[in-house]
Specification:
The protein has 97 residues and is an alpha+beta fold. It has one domain. Helices cover 31% and strands 29% of the residues. The strands form two sheets. Strands 3, 4, 5 and 6 form a four-stranded antiparallel sheet that branches. A two-stranded antiparallel ribbon has the order 1-2.
Length: 97
């Protein structure tokens, strides 16, 4: 359990795609008054995509949300770029729900 503004918080409303534990969210709420929900990483040949959203304990967004993060190891082949583009669209659609 965590205390936020004098209120005891035992659960956190997470999006269905959130891969963060309740314990981690409770610590975030205690120290930062927000929980940061992260998706699982989607990876390909030389790239990774994740998305996140920060909310209060009730699941109400508290920052500009959602955010998509793309990491690459440098240049991509055409096939890897196509896979990245398709996966980026899928991550966007999931984050926008």
């Amino acid at each position: 359990m965590s205390t936020v503004d004098g209120t005891i918080v035992s659960t956190v409303a997470c999006p269905s795609w959130c891969s963060v534990s309740t314990t981690t969210h409770q610590r975030e709420l205690h120290w930062e008054s927000r929980a940061v929900h992260w998706s699982d990483a989607r990876t390909g040949d030389g790239w990774e995509i994740r998305h996140s959203i920060a909310t209060d304990a009730n699941g109400t967004p508290v920052d500009h949300a959602p955010r998509l993060y793309v990491s690459t190891n440098g240049g991509l082949s055409l096939a890897a770029a196509e896979a990245l583009a398709l996966t980026l669209l899928a991550a966007y659609e999931e984050a926008a729900d």
